[in-house]
Design brief:
Number of strands: 20
Radius of gyration: 20 Å
Strand content: 25-35%
Structural class: alpha+beta
Helix content: 25-40%
Distance between the termini: 45 Å
Number of domains: 3
Amino acid sequence: MNKKIMLLGSGELGRELTISLKRLGCYVVACDRYARAPAMQVADEFRVFDMLDGQLLDQHVKELNPHIIVPEIEAINTDMLMELEEEFVVVPSARAVSLTMNRDRIRDRAHELGLPTARFAYAENLEELLACYERMDCKVVIKPVMSSSGKGQSVVHAGRRQDAAQAWHDAVGNMRGDRAKVIIEEFIEFDDEITLLTIRQKNGHTIFCPVIKHEQVHGDFKNSQQGGFAIGGWEQKAQAMAKLITDDLGGFGLFGVEFFIRNDEVIFSELSPRPHDTGLVTLYTQDLSEFDLHARAMLHIPVASVSLMRSGACCTINAHHAADDYEIMGLDQAEQILSVQVMLFDKPNCYPNRRLGIVFGSSLEVAREGHAKISIQ
């Protein structure tokens, strides 16, 4: 009997995971808060409901009786997920999902494990935030403990109390879930920001994808590249740190572990217990994409290693306006450029900064050249 997979979250990452699971014979039910989400378009079945509602989540899980539950987004009632794990398999584990969906909990755990982190503090109201900000007395990043795609994240320089107050309102206004709590952390002047895709397998063999360098603007992923750049002596340090924290979280699957690199120093940033948006580049570069690897790990299909077939990069296509109907122009011009490929996510509407597609190329310069040909109307 084919495995029934219940996918909680049906965005572009969920779509690619659904395709990978279908290739391995799985029956996929895609769930999200809105209809015609990307993964729903390729799944066997779909459900539309608010996954933050524990009662609804429990109801749909019990009705579907899946072999595996796979969270793909942050907006999930993790308390109910922990209860459901007593009867169902959650990938990679309900504990991993609960810890990583809350920046304070995963940051605290990283600190307890001895991983180097930026200086940080938490605030649950404006007064606490301003007190922490003044005490740290440096350039900081302020963001919700629970959010997605960089929403609600601000960089505030020292001595800008009014900006810090505005950052509090931005963070609380963009938080996911029901936690009015923000993290304020030292801004690291880094050389590189990387993602290390880490795959935990049932056979006990943890493997790593080649390092991905990425760039974020206001906390939102804009481009990433894999291969074609020098890697310093920090790679083994990053792998050891990624293995330490993913072993602590447990379960089987792919984790996206983010680090800052400063000289040869490796500083832990964040972690996602699922395919990472910066890892979309692996659709272009690797023999098995991050989605193929996550699917195999959850199904206990062993993978000995990951091969980089070619260097590559990707740039995101983001909307600049709100509309229920839109058109993406310039694909013909973009794909005339050697090595450029364009992938669209076919989301039902757009709003400012919503990710609608991605442009791949053999290098970051080539991907940017293709990206420049794309427009949204």
